[in-house]
């Protein structure tokens, strides 16, 4: 389990996703997600319905990136501009563009907030803190608000299967790194959040 995941690698990929102009490269953003999927898979089958969803969203974005309009999908900024200017986004209800890059990335973006909140709890936790509680507190504060009842229930079941705090630290083995990766993940999150807010995209169906 230990060698399938490294927080260091997640950190490096998200770091590579930030350009000098503080734009976010989609290629590295999804590479960061791929690392997280590998980690989730190593935790067991209970999480496979979650990782399958992430994998399918990564795939949608990869297809845009390698498709004929790929040059517009280099950064999140260029994707938003391109899809909005060409009316490729369903803005209020699902219609002819149910799988736009914008709405797909928004799902991962919201999940990144969960990760940020969870890692922050893990970092400041004490020996008797429960990871399942940290997970669900972080979830209720972020993603849960966007999920229907059935998904929230399934997620609740998955949280019960989450390994304990020691395992997390063994697997990530880098308590110190947590302090370093958090601001970085938070920065990528905030840049995306501001961009989506500015363009009124935070509630895409
Ligand atoms: C380490 C343990 C992992 C805990 C994961 C906590 C987050 C729970 C997320 C539950 C997702 C449930 C399955 C899919 C739901 C989809 O309906 C939604 C909306 O997509 P749409 O239907 O609109 O296309 N998908 C999401 O919200 C994306 C969820 C991604 C979750 C990523 C978790 C990150 C794990 C990192 C591991 C350290």
How are the SSEs ordered, and which strands pair?
Blueprint: H1 7-16, H2 26-42, H3 48-66, H4 76-85, H5 101-123, H6 131-141, H7 149-160, H8 165-172, H9 175-198
Bound molecules: ligand 1PZ.
Organism: Cyprinus carpio (Common carp)
GO cellular component, one term: plasma membrane
Catalytic activity: N-(9Z-octadecenoyl)-sphing-4-enine-1-phosphate(in) = N-(9Z-octadecenoyl)-sphing-4-enine-1-phosphate(out); N-(hexadecanoyl)-sphing-4-enine-1-phosphate(in) = N-(hexadecanoyl)-sphing-4-enine-1-phosphate(out)
Describe the structure.
There is one protein chain. The longest helix is centred in the last third of the chain and has 24 residues, at 175-198. Helix 3 (48-66) packs across helix 5 (101-123). Helices cover 65% and strands 0% of the residues. The chain is mainly alpha-helical and 205 residues long. The chain has a single domain, classed as Glycolipid transfer protein (Glycolipid transfer protein, GLTP, Orthogonal Bundle). It has helices at residues 7-16, 26-42, 48-66, 76-85, 101-123, 131-141, 149-160, 165-172, 175-198. Ligand 1PZ binds next to helix 2, helix 3, helix 5, helix 6 and helix 7. Belongs to the GLTP family. Its main location: membrane. One of its GO terms (biological process) is negative regulation of interleukin-1 beta production.
């Amino acid at each position: 389990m230990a060698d399938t995941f490294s927080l260091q690698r997640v950190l490096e990929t998200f770091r590579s996703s930030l350009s000098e102009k503080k734009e976010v490269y989609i290629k590295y953003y999804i590479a960061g997600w791929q690392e997280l999927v590998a980690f989730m898979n190593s935790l067991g089958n209970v999480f496979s319905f979650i990782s399958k969803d992430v994998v399918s969203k990564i795939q949608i974005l990869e297809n845009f990136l390698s498709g004929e309009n790929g040059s517009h999908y280099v950064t999140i900024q260029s994707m938003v501009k391109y899809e909005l200017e060409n009316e490729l986004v369903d803005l209020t209800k699902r219609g002819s563009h149910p799988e736009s890059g914008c709405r797909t990335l928004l799902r991962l973006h919201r999940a990144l907030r969960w990760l940020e909140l969870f890692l922050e709890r893990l970092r400041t936790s004490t020996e008797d803190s429960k990871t399942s509680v940290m997970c669900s507190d972080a979830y209720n504060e972020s993603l849960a608000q966007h999920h229907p009842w059935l998904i929230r229930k399934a997620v609740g079941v998955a949280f019960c299967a989450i390994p304990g705090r020691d395992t997390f630290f063994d697997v990530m083995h880098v308590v110190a790194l947590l302090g370093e990766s958090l601001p970085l993940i938070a920065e990528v999150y905030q840049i995306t959040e501001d961009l989506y807010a500015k363009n009124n995209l935070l509630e895409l169906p």
